[in-house]
TrEMBL record:
Comp. bias regions, Basic and acidic residues: 471-486
UniProt feature, compositional bias: Low complexity: 513-537
Protein name in UniProt: Uncharacterized protein
InterPro entries referenced in this protein's UniProt entry, alphabetically: LRR_dom_sf (IPR032675)
Biased composition annotated in UniProt, kind: Polar residues: 488-497
Region of interest (Disordered), ranges: 466-550
Source organism of the structure: Hebeloma cylindrosporum
Composition skew (Pro residues), residue ranges: 538-547
């Protein structure tokens, strides 16, 4: 047997400790003779080591601070006023939330870190009130609430007399059972007269500790307030009264009840509402007569027993309206109840299964006579007829975005050849009709293909003529139509949709294949209805519509979705060449193949990217025949795929 004896175990000079003997025998390791004594020794040693480590850590910080102060030219050369200004650039701005933007949880520790560099930096930071006028406190545990409250008190005490921007938030998994939230709310309530921006995202049970105008409390500097309690609708008993806030402009509310809140509605210009009933939203709009920006998200069905307006509510200053209706709430009531004469931007997002209330939307725009410039309809289907009616009443539209649901029906593909032709000034001139969307500059579409790619090429050629140095000419585009449009190109900047330019040759597109002078006129092919700019038709046409200048369409983005049970994507030669022309003109063409199962459900959504843009399956070198030729082998044509998709949506089964 071998014995290992430790003769050096001692905590201090006055105490002696029994030896710790561990016997090692051939049978293995035996238990200590006195485990209680050994535990006491280990704990005593641990205490000494911990104290020593803490002392050394503190000493390291002191030495680092001294070194930073001695070696830093920043401290030796710059006055404290300049240092203060530099420190302010380290603080991120306090930004108001937009939609479902993530909560800003960083930035608070920066001021503290600046003060930890050295004594001089600390004095400068602690003496700069602007560093402490913005605070973001994010709670990850209610257990540490007391220490956070103490930090919040010290922080705000250094802010001097400046307006305050305060954001309080908590992780969703924080348990507030038994937590003392009153002290935290009282800490910020002491400075309510200096509130400028308040963003509170903690449970509504904490709201009854907020200062209230019921006690004649006023908020003279309050500019924006965000109240978004996590966890859905709160309790009605927690009332909020911030009605004496003459400077309030931005208000963002979520999961509250209108009957439990009171604000100075007349001065609000930006309103963001989430999870409110339609009647609640209308009642708030009735009182916000100076509203400029409205954002409605997750509108709830049903009502909260508020009286509905007998006449449409007039919102004379409203310029921007965003609606996210992902709950499938019936929106005709809302559209029928408002009038927006100044509306410029309308953004509507549905939940995919319900069409947009196009009739009521058209009635709203017609009733309002608004100069709408941007229109976006996403994840909500709209029919071709409704889109045409909508286009006829928005001649001021500059930007159009259509993002169709994942699986639309064949009857709900809004962007068709007919729609594109109505926006073509050449087509309008030939048919003596008004050109639709004459001011359109940006077109974004995502969905099934209800148009020919050649029609899109003709539209761009008409609205955005090619210039010298371009990769293609109008003659190349004529391969898809059989017509030569050289003398019928419209100058979008100066001419109208119905009349020819004063100088028919001033805006001709250079044609490499043409060697004749610009004064020679092209001869139309037999039967061609081409109208020469210098030769009016022999018959007297009906009175043309009023002259309207046409804008260039300078941005086109198409996400073409093919719906099939066959994971492939092919185009005929004509389509491929048209797509290549569009891409040369700067259009963004993206292709996706949405795979469907027998019941019509989406099982996969593949991005085919640039490879599909030239009509070739990624990794394949197979040449594809024209659409008019017979396919011996391979996947079905686009038409066949779309027919299969329609049958799948209807519940039928189509053989591949």
């Amino acid at each position: 047997m071998v014995e290992l004896v430790d003769d050096h175990v001692a905590l201090n000079d006055d105490e002696a400790y029994s030896r710790c003997m561990v016997s090692v025998t051939t049978e293995g390791i035996q238990e200590p003779e006195d485990p209680y004594a050994e535990l006491a020794v280990v704990e005593a040693e641990f205490t000494v080591v911990s104290q020593t480590l803490a002392s050394l850590t503190e000493r390291v910080q002191v030495l680092k601070s001294r070194i930073n102060e001695l070696d830093s030219p920043f401290v030796r050369l710059l006055p404290s006023e300049i240092m203060s200004e530099i420190f302010l650039f380290c603080i991120p701005p306090f930004e108001l939330p937009s939609d479902d933007s993530p909560i800003q949880t960083t930035g608070t520790s920066i001021s503290l870190r600046l003060g930890a560099v050295c004594l001089s930096w600390r004095k400068t930071a602690w003496g700069t009130p602007n560093l402490w006028s913005t605070v973001t406190l994010h709670l990850t545990s209610a257990v540490k609430l007391d220490s956070r409250v103490h930090l919040l008190d010290e922080w705000l005490s250094r802010s001097g007399h400046l307006p305050l921007s305060i954001r309080l938030s908590a992780s969703e998994d924080v348990s507030w059972a038994g937590a003392n939230s009153e002290d935290m709310m009282k800490s910020i309530a002491k400075y309510s007269s200096r509130w400028r921006n308040i963003d509170i995202r903690i449970p509504s049970l904490c709201y009854h500790h907020l200062p209230s105008c019921d006690n004649e409390q006023s908020f003279p500097l309050l500019h924006s307030i965000v109240l978004r309690p996590p966890g859905g609708q709160g309790d009605r008993v927690h009332r909020i009264n911030l009605s004496i806030a003459p400077s309030l402009r931005h208000l963002s509310l979520s999961c509250l009840y209108l009957r439990s809140i009171t604000f100075h509605w007349e001065v609000i210009t930006h309103l963001d509402l989430e999870s409110f009933y339609v009647d609640e939203s209308l009642e708030m709009l009735r009182q916000t007569t100076n509203l400029v920006d409205l954002n409605l998200r997750r509108v709830l069905g049903g009502d909260d027993r508020h009286d509905l307006p007998k006449e449409p509510i007039v919102l004379p200053a409203l310029e921007r309206m965003i609606i996210l209706n992902d709950k499938g709430t019936d929106m005709p009531l809302f559209f029928d109840s408002i009038t927006t004469p100044s509306l410029r931007t309308l953004d509507y997002t549905g939940e995919g299964l319900i069409s947009i209330a196009s009739g009521e939307l058209i009635a709203l725009i017609t009733r309002s006579g608004c100069p709408l410039q941007e229109l976006s309809i996403s994840k909500a289907s709209i029919r071709e007829e409704a889109l045409i009616s909508l286009m006829a009443i928005v001649p001021t539209l500059v930007k159009l975005t259509l993002v169709m649901p994942a699986v639309p029906s064949m009857q709900q593909l809004p962007l068709t050849d007919k729609v594109l032709r109505l926006c073509d000034p050449e087509h309008a001139r030939k048919n003596n009709v008004a050109c639709q969307l004459p001011m359109l500059e940006s077109l974004t579409y995502s969905g099934g293909n209800g148009f020919k790619w050649s029609t899109m090429v003709k539209l761009l050629n008409s609205r955005f003529p090619m210039t010298e140095g371009s990769h293609s000419s109008d003659v190349e585009a004529d391969r898809f139509s059989g017509e030569h449009k050289r003398n019928s190109i419209i100058n979008p900047a100066t001419t109208d949709c119905t009349a020819a330019p004063e100088d028919p040759h001033a805006h001709d597109i250079p044609d490499a294949s043409s060697s004749t002078s610009s004064s020679s006129s092209s001869t139309p092919s037999p039967g061609s209805p081409t109208l020469s700019a210098s030769s009016p038709p022999s018959s007297s046409p009906p009175s043309p519509p009023p002259q309207t200048s046409v804008s260039r369409i300078t941005f086109v983005s198409v996400t073409h979705k093919t719906f099939s049970r066959n994971p492939s994507l092919r185009f005929g030669t004509a389509d491929r060449e048209a797509i290549q022309l569009l891409r040369k003109r700067g259009a963004t063409i993206t292709h996706r193949v949405v795979l469907l199962e027998g019941g019509g459900n989406v099982v996969d959504d593949q991005d085919w990217g640039d490879d599909a843009a030239v009509g070739v399956e990624p990794g394949a070198d197979t040449e594809v025949e024209d659409e008019g030729q017979e396919h011996v082998d391979g996947p079905p044509s686009l038409v066949a795929q779309m027919q299969a998709m329609a049958a799948l949506v209807g519940g039928g089964v189509v053989a591949p």
